[in-house]
Amino acid sequence: MTLPRLNVYRHDRGARALVTLAGVIDPVTAPRVRAALEQCLQDGITLIDVDLTTVDRCDDSGLRVFLDVSEHAAEAQAFLLLHHPSPQTEQLLMDTGCDGLLYPMRPGGARPQRA
To answer: Can you list the residues of the chain whose pLDDT is less than 50?
Structure first.
């Protein structure tokens, strides 16, 4: 028995959803992430918090999903925020200028600076 490469957990609280991802986000698993996040919008969620604490790796296919869903969320007067990315994922977001998707507060209240 092989373990899934990505687990997706969703917990709703009113119009807010916490989506926790665990594993790897790559071309194989990105469609699952997209489906889960788009479903939140279809269900009328207006704030989607994505917890990346247990994401081992996120490549550009995952980044594309986050950007697309963020755009769809804005069209629906909703928001997508990424929380607790790994250093690799945070660097990918900063290098591509997409760090605006990150939850704005860091320990001590500082945001990471782009390299």
So the answer is: 105-115
H helices of 22-86, in order, are 30-42, 60-75
Q: 89: which residues sit within 8 A by CB, 6+ positions away? A: 52, 55, 57, 58, 62
Show Cβ contacts of residue 35 under 8 Å, excluding neighbours closer than 6 positions: none
* CA 61/CA 27 separation, integer angstroms: 6
Q: What end-to-end distance do the CA atoms of the chain give, in Å?
A: 42
Strand pairing partners for 22?
A: 7, 54
- Token readout for 59 is 């490549």
pTM of the model: 0.86
Burial degree of 106 (CB within 10 A; 0-12, 13-18, 19+): exposed
